[in-house]
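PT: before anyone asks, these are the final sequences, not the draft ones from last week. 913 residues across everything. Please model them as a single complex and drop the result in this thread when it's through.
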Amino acid sequence: MKKNAQSSTFKAGMFLLENLTSGMYNDPLTIYREYIQNSVDAIEVKLNPKGASISIELDPFNKTISVSDTGVGISSREAESILGSIGCSNKAETGLRGFRGIGRLGGLAFCDRAIFRTKAVGENIESIQEWDCKHLRHILSNHKKTPFTLQELFYNVTKLYKENHKKPDDSYFKVTLEGVSSFRNYIFDIHKVKNYISQVAPAPLDHNQFKFAGMLNNYLKAKIATYKTFPIYLNGEKIYKPYRNEFRTTNKGSDFLDDVEPFVLKAENQVLAYGWYGKRNNFLGAINRTENIAGIRVRAGNILIGDAHLLDECFREPRFNGYVIGEIHIVSKEIIPNSRRDDFVDNPTKAFFYNAVEKEIGLSLSKQIRAQSQKLSKQKSSNSQLPISIEKNAPPQSASPDQQSRNFVKPDLIKQTEKELLNKIISSCGKCAKLAAILNIK
Amino acid sequence: MSRNILLVEPDYKTKFPPLGLMKISSYHKLLGDTVHFVKGCKVENLFNYWDRIYVTSLFTFNWKTTIDTINFYKNNILHGDTSRILAGGIMASLMAEEVWKTTGIVPHQGVINKPGMVGDDNDLVIDEMIPDYDLFNGGNYNYNLLDSYFGYSTRGCIRKCKFCGVHKLEPNFVEYKGLKPFVQKVIEKFGEKQHLVLFDNNILASKHFKKIIHDIMDLGFKKGDKLNNRVRYVDFNQGTDAFLLKKDFVQLISQINIHPLRIAFDSIKDKNVYCQKVKMAGECGIRHLSNYILYNFNDGPADLWERLKINIDLNKQFDLSIYSFPMKYIPLNAKDRSFINQPNWNWLFLRNVHRILNVLKGSVMTGEDFFYRAFGRDVDEFEMILHMPENIIMYRGKQPKSEEKNWVKLFKKLTSLQKNNLIKILSENRKRDELRNAYVKLSDGKIKKILEYYMPFEKNNTLPLFDSGDN
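LR: through. Structure below.
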């Protein structure tokens, strides 16, 4: 029996590759995350990472995208084995962000040709791997009856070659995607791409826009040995996380942070994650979603997991997550991002983590939001006794609490009406310009 | 399957209908699609499904209006989907990268002169389509030219002038595009039109110019030809190149109902050539001429005045009727009209040229006396006029009124340094409050006195005049 088992053949078919490319990511922007993640790891392991950066260049006029880093690169000796393998990452035990060896395949689904160029310090050879993605798609859709093995397919659509390079000191990895297209062309919408990268990538906090940037940096660095940010450029513009002091809210108002509150999430004395949330000043309304900062976001290796809604269910009402700002940085090695990085691999620690978020963060913030909402309702009912006509703007009785808080625009209205009343008083004591000037009435 | 197509022209001011959209309309109607035209951002379009939205563009200085329009349709109707919105036209072509960076939409650049350029799989070329004259039916749009055949008999230009975008938009010079089949198709679909307006960028550069003229004559635009008892005019709207205007060409042109013949006079350096060509036109019986005069480029006020004066003299000398159209230079990538070619020009001077032209409705009339009153008898007087306050410059009338006389008296007492200071103060303090503050701070009595003429709005104000805080 044993002998038979040894001689039985194992075959990895070509559709495996389809699963790892077009089958993997429904949002084309995800490929930016995958390439940034690889670049970040390449910079992380570089001996002298000072000055190393990541550049993303979008050229929609030539339908080309490139993502390059000046990280460690791959030596010509290793290029064949690393680029010639799929799902055999050597990073698995290193604590680096990518560990499955499939991320670089993400772009294949969205382009006609993908080119990987890389070089390590101290050599004059650049290794180049080209993928003919058009041909790849052709084979996948036309050879269904006689499928290739994964290996046959790989040899059919890729070629690896080397070129001389004049700068031995350079090290880099550059991905170039040519003939790029995607659903609704989102992949080239530079605003969308910028918003996406700024929220997902391990970009720095912007000291000019966010006064807590320095404090949070110090806190996260002190607590998380591996916490780092990286210089990332999109068409020459440096990318920062979108956090800022002031932000718009859905009730057409705005709010700002009074402070930030650091916290730690633990399970049975084991630290799962460190985080922070912002203490909003007025807590009126959810944060406008175009601000790209709402929700407690979860990050592993400072790269976003899922999206702004990952922790929605940890709040008493899922929408409450849209009222708050914050980050959770995973430190436990047992909380493992899944392949799509939209959640974590199912295991007991995942449950500990979500429970801890609900208990320590979700619940207390939900209470605060609810209390604020009740306070507003009370104010509303006392305001309605004022001899000011604001009833027109009041929500109908059946409106949901959310609608009510959104419609709660009365403070402004009152201010306005006060001004009108004041104007009336002034006009009744004669048009005294000086009084007007003193009272600053126009 | 029939698609719903929305064609949008941003809400900027324009005389001519959007030719590109008219061709796109015909293209889609040919494919059986439903086409709807709209000017600007219209909320009623929110509640329709649009398979595709085309937004055209024109001048780069309409940047904000155009970008706001693109964003309105992209964000409110298509929810960020950039694959169903196509931006094109002149601004979008010249500033494609910036349009993309601002809106996320990759504009189409240049003329749509190959099949498949808008993403459909067919052999149709949009640029070859007959413009859809019915596109504006039912709307209140007031476009000119809808009673004209309008289009091109050539494409592109042989020159690469720094101030012009044609060589970027239409890099290849196409010597001949048959006018006859084009006009014939317009007649078949939309009936006969009164006039013919050609937007050729350099029609004289075509080696088939003679053939083009014969086409025009065959189409019923020979000298004296009429339709419905009205003369049918031909207009080479983008002007003709004085350097290419040879005698035999002028003779050819004189055989059609050209009205007016437009000749460019971009630089005073071209004076001799220009005068010679105008004289030639006059000799061939072309009396109505029009003249584009570029200013705020490499010139100064003196250059502008001199070129205008040359036209006045030519009118008199050869009994012609040349209308001058001063055109302010704006760089090809400028997002508004604020460009000033300093130090030759300044804000006040450009503003005042504009004010004079506003009174004249854009063109400089042919009469000598009128010209001298509007632009001055010499360069010095012109420069003085360019210093005038708005209320004087715009309401001068035939004879100077006392306010103007008093202002002139004060102005003549100023030294050139004081004049420069006056320009500086007016250019830097364009708002009422700013000017008032500048006035209050000013110590030079002479400038202060003349500055009061620039603040007529203070006279009827109930607030204390020029309150410096001492009461």
